[in-house]
Amino acid sequence: MKVQHIVRFVPVVVATAALAVTASVTAPTSALATPDPVTAAQKTLDSIQSQSATIDLKYTQLQEQLDAANHTLDQADAKLAIGLARVAQLRKSLGQLALINFQTAGIGTTTRLITSPDDTSFLNNLAVVQSVTNRSNGQLQELQASQAELTALEAQAKQSRDTIASVTSQQNQLVQEYNQKEAAAKSLLARLTAAQKKRLAELQQQREQAALRAVLGTSATSRGATRISLSTSTAVSGRASVAVAFALAQVGKAYVYGATGPGAYDCSGLMLRAWAAAGVSLPRTSQAQYSAGTHIALSSLQPGDLVFYYSGLTHVGMYIGGGSIVNAENPSTGVVVASLTSMPIVGATRVG
Predict the structure, then answer these.
(1) Predicted confidence band at 24 (pLDDT cuts at 50, 70, 90)?
(2) Would strands 254-255 and 264-265 be described as parallel, antiparallel, or unpaired?
(3) CB of 253 within 8 A of CB of 334?
(4) Which of 176, 239, 329, 349 has the most neighbouring CB atoms within 10 Å?
């Protein structure tokens, strides 16, 4: 989730090697000098973007808990329905057996012997009574066990509902936090003059180009801060080609917290579905996806590799070649193609 794309030219922190580029545009070093508003804005926006990415990860982690709680609740509800039906059946059967017991309870064994036409009839009648008694005892025990199971399932269902309510509340709070970050970024930008905004865009472009050269070498294409075409400059083959094609086909779709498609995605949700299309199963969060394959050097990036950003591994995109990634950025921007170095890179993982 990148605050930078609330407005196209909001700058962000990039690879450490690129920071030297900012020396020519920093504020005077004198302690008495007025701070450069562009540098101050850059620093604040970088911080907002990092915090927003952390919010995104927390939301996705909560979504995992929510999905698990919903699954548990569905299972408990299904078992409860079966259990309730069985208990009702047992109660009905026990009621019938109780009636039989009541009807025969006053007839003693001696009376049965006298009134029976022969020994065989007596033994048959006695066997029936004993069978009814045994069935009653067995079904009563089953009823007691079924009722105990229902009590446990009801407790499990309640716990799941409580978890769902708690997690949903926490997610709503995170959305509010993100909206506050977004509003702060917009407010900061609104206070800058047109010339200062232009400097921000130029600074972002310089930093991204310098970072690309540091990561990919001097042959890295100069992309600037504008959006990139959907074509890749590197040949893609095998399952990676399927994953890249899927991810690129989602460009233009919405970013929704916790979404995994098909109409909307969050950052890790897009990676999950893209590689699933290629037959590769990935875990749900960006942090878990980082450990889902082989860690590689940035200089070895190939299309389909996952690139991770920020110290907390709070954002992930897919490298598509040519110094570009496709990623689900934030609710304001959605799924887009962006510069590989538009955010501070932590590492990369090859899957598939």
Answers:
(1) very low
(2) parallel
(3) yes
(4) 329
